[in-house]
């Protein structure tokens, strides 16, 4: 992601330092599971009115189902009176600024390979609550750097989020562990070293 620019999403949305911000950053498409996270918000705000979901991303203009899905998300949010707690931010060029401000990174995806956004969030010392798909299980040590849940399991997602909301120390410790995991095993430096070693082994 790009460099920081000093933008504060809390100021932009008129939110306080005590509000809990959770974020998903992804193309808006059914496979990314944004609807599940918004449904979870419908449950969470009943007891935690200061929690906010930032939905970052846009639908694919060339796919009618993606555009329809985007409209469905926004309509559902209005119907459930969640507009004060669910914020559709669209396309952003200040991802690092957003990550500095948020408390928890989430993903409801039904399909992934090795998600860059999750790795970037962990590098920013954010606890993650993400679906157990693709390579996410390699990134997340359950209960140590974050939580995994099955796609569509809204109840488990809600419980994980509640646990993190109620325990700032856990959020902080998970964030630190997540950064260590990325730096130790999945950083650009590690990739370069592994590639160099592979090339050297071939040349020997």
Walk me through the structure.
The structure is a single chain. With about 200 residues, this protein is of the alpha/beta class. The chain contains nine helices and six strands. It has a six-stranded parallel β-sheet with strand order 3-2-1-4-5-6, sandwiched between helices. The longest helix has 19 residues, at about 170-185. The N and C termini lie far apart (about 35 Å).
Q: What is the radius of gyration?
A: 17 Å
Main sheet properties: 6 strands, parallel
User: On the 0-100 scale, what is the average pLDDT?
Assistant: 92
Total of helices: 9
Sum up the overall morphology in one term.
globular
Strand content: 5-15%
Please estimate the helix content.
40-55%
**Widest beta sheet: strand line-up:** 3-2-1-4-5-6
Low-confidence stretches: none
Find the count of extended strands (DSSP E, 2+ residues): 6
**Structural class assignment:** alpha/beta
| Element-by-element helix/strand order | HEHEHEHEHEHEHHH
The CA-CA distance between the termini, in Å, is: 36 Å
